[in-house]
Amino acid sequence: MAPSTASLTPGLTTFQKVLSTEPLDSSIAFLVSLLKRRQIKGSKRCAVATTLLLLRTVELTKQADSERLIQRVSEVGKKLINAAPHEPAVGNIVRRVLGIIRDEDEDDQAGTRTGDDGTPTSEAGSDSVASLEQPQSRGGMHPIANGLSARPDASASPSPQRGTSRPPLMSSHTGVPGGPRAVTSMFSIISHPTMRSSGVDSPTHRSGSGTPQMTASGILSNLRPEVIKGVKEIIDEINAADDEISAAALEQIHPQETIITYSSSLTVQRFLLKAASKRKFTVVHAESYPNNHLKTHALLTGTHDPTEDEDSLPNDSFSKPLTSAGISVIMIPDSAVFAVMSRATKVVLDAHAVLTDGSLVAASGSKAVIKAARFHRVPVLVVAPTYKLSPSYPYDPYKMIEYGDAGKVVPFQDSELRMGVETGVRNPLYDFVEAGDVDLFVTNQVPAVVSAGYLYRVVREQYHDEDLQL
Amino acid sequence: METVTWRLVWDSILQGLFLRRAKALTSQTISNIFLSPPASSLSTPPSTPKPISDPSPSTDFDIVAFYNDLINSDATMTPPIAAIESLISLLANTPLTTISETLALLSTHSSKLLASQRNPIPLSAGTELFQRYLVSSFQQRPSSLANSDFTTLRHHILSNSSLFVKRANEARPKIAHHALPFIKDDSTIITYGYSRAVQALLTHAAECNRFFNVIYVLPATGLTERLAKSIAALSELSIPTATISLQALTYALASLAPSAPPPQFIVGATAVLENGSIVTELGMHQLALIAKSVSIPLHVAVESYKFVRNFPLGYGPSDLARLGVKQDVLRFEDGVSHSPSSQADISSTEGGMVEITQPNLISALITENGIMTPNAVSEELIKLWF
């Protein structure tokens, strides 16, 4: 809280240092403790930290066949998930990494079956590839650690990178439905095992593959570099997510609109900035007292001080205020949201997590904004990078809400008031907003803009069905 | 030698039972067949013009009676599964020699079965699923059977069909498993109508030592024997159960303790249509509207074989009629010939009636493939059919 202690408390940067110097087990323990102490918080940071740790896990796992990798990654993943049940991003990343391993494993098996595109690399050759990969990958982590200084490497060209990183991911996604997913679908009723095992079930999926699954997992030695590549793509994806989402801004925001937004979100900020490059509109910004108003003020005035928290991610350290882009910005207190809503043409919000049925966990107060928008029939648009899309179902939504420092609501110095409401002071950090009130979600996945009803498809495409329960 | 070939051709025509066609054949077309037998087999396509007389092989198997027997004898049997079982035993009891014969037989008897029912929607789910299953198993039969004759193939399919039914029956335990996280300790579950899936999931939850209350909403037509049995089964599991009538529902909801975990509706359905709307017994629509207005989630526990590939354009009686349901709630009487309808009258007329509940009132479907939103139904169907 106090700025002087900020540099002393460990965070993402410290974690990265630990990760590159300490053995894996202690890095795991370190991240677990960081998550538990909320020293790494927020979806994006959690996602990045998880990805880095899992990348290291994949690199350091001995005997990297798919089974072993899956087992190891889910072991580590479970520890992290248990440490941070309030951060669904952790689980999402674990599932993504598991999905990558499964995809690569499948591709490998398909490769060895159809021909020999995987076989030329011998055991020794691929080993050396893997060992070459390691120092390189450590270098790959630094761009995130050092922020702007090392950025050219990672961000030299966001759009080409997007072009190169997307297709392999998509191909792996589209490859899935023919594979294990079909087993869990309704088709399982009308297909019987004799057909399945004889390999006739997927003539379109793997053409000309007559040989049964002979490949022992042991010979899949070129799995590791591929997986490492995939995991690094996740990191790139997380960093590029905001930019990719903002690409949809021009279609969503029209001239002379009045946009209401709430709390401080860099994703929304970029989205609006992108629209501001071509359009003139008005933004009404509610400040989100008491948890986020200082950050909101900083975002609006552009005085966001990157040195204040040393943990800022590379893309986060720089932000231009909307006013400098020629947008008139009106800041209102949270209490005025309903009154101003009648003037708005659109509401753009960020979320902490988006669940598969279209409900979301967002900064506390978001529910009031969304309900006000519903009352006035104002369309609500939620920006949701893929790492926030969680496949879990909100069985118990109130468990996802975290409570913060009650002193922000009633200061501890105010003894009189505190005595009066002795146990009654609560400061929830998040709101759970049930499905049905959000009209559109903007993601960095290929359909980019999805209606709430079909969000489940985007979420489902992210993960393998086997990994939904971790 | 010539007569022998002639006889062979004649036999095959008879077996195909394209009798009308055979009658139409003049002696000169027969001689054509003589000259080119392959051409004749090509010219008898499986898509024979829609039957006026019965083009499928004649059989004395009474599918309607068999179906009714099945439904009445086994309480765990759902209409789609019973329809599938009936079709399987139809296949087993009819001598068949070709694939097109089989398919023609199935389609005529399916429509016969559907026409015999007041509410054919759940049955059509089963019959269409089974026909689809047959087509796909003909298309992708194991290579060992690719070149063998039809008898072995038929045998293979019959033996696998029972597996098909068995798998479909495994759906309910899976639903119970998926539904478990919904049922929290001390929560209240409100259910309506007789449903095997709901029964299974409540039983499973009780066996997993969840403590919860159940409110059974009874229809205006009164307690049927099946309902009474399932309520008795709940009390045997020592689940606290209250039975209320439909008109007491809103009052009962207001009487729930506000501090307890939020209540929820879990109901079953006889069929799920392509847009995610459900077909259930009369009264569900009212219940769903109440649930929506008091913001209580409505979950539908349903096996995915009840998904029907049929997209309703609305939710009214005309849409049900378009789906083949024969029912009429409104019967205006002048009061001279009849006294006002009594309780017994209502229960006899409204007993088996159904209605559609639209998807925007449904929070989630609990199927054996997991929890899905009503929107996901169409995709599941696409996966099945294409």
TrEMBL record, chain A:
Residues 104-217 are annotated as: Disordered. It is found in: Cytoplasm, Cytosol. The keyword ATP-binding does not apply. Residues 119-137, 194-217 have a biased composition (Polar residues). It holds the Pfam family IF-2B. Residues 149-160 have a biased composition (Low complexity). InterPro entries: eIF2B_beta_subunit, IF-2B-related, IF_2B-like_C, NagB/RpiA_transferase-like. GO terms for cellular component: cytosol; eukaryotic translation initiation factor 2B complex. GO terms for molecular function: guanyl-nucleotide exchange factor activity; translation initiation factor activity. The keyword Transmembrane does not apply. Keywords: Cytoplasm, Initiation factor, Protein biosynthesis. Belongs to the eIF-2B alpha/beta/delta subunits family. Component of the translation initiation factor 2B (eIF2B) complex which is a heterodecamer of two sets of five different subunits: alpha, beta, gamma, delta and epsilon. Subunits alpha, beta and delta comprise a regulatory subcomplex and subunits epsilon and gamma comprise a catalytic subcomplex. Within the complex, the hexameric regulatory complex resides at the center, with the two heterodimeric catalytic subcomplexes bound on opposite sides. This is Translation initiation factor eIF2B subunit beta.
From TrEMBL, chain B:
Component of the translation initiation factor 2B (eIF2B) complex which is a heterodecamer of two sets of five different subunits: alpha, beta, gamma, delta and epsilon. Subunits alpha, beta and delta comprise a regulatory subcomplex and subunits epsilon and gamma comprise a catalytic subcomplex. Within the complex, the hexameric regulatory complex resides at the center, with the two heterodimeric catalytic subcomplexes bound on opposite sides. The keyword Cytoplasm applies. It is found in: Cytoplasm, Cytosol. GO terms for cellular component: cytosol; eukaryotic translation initiation factor 2B complex. It comes from the Eukaryota. GO terms for molecular function: guanyl-nucleotide exchange factor activity; translation initiation factor activity. Belongs to the eIF-2B alpha/beta/delta subunits family. PANTHER family: TRANSLATION INITIATION FACTOR EIF-2B SUBUNIT ALPHA. Its main location: cytoplasm. InterPro entries: eIF2B_alpha/beta/delta, elF-2B_alpha_N, IF-2B-related, IF_2B-like_C, NagB/RpiA_transferase-like. Keywords: Cytoplasm, Initiation factor, Protein biosynthesis. It comes from Capronia coronata CBS 617.96. The lineage of its organism: Eukaryota, Fungi, Dikarya, Ascomycota, Pezizomycotina. This is Translation initiation factor eIF2B subunit alpha.
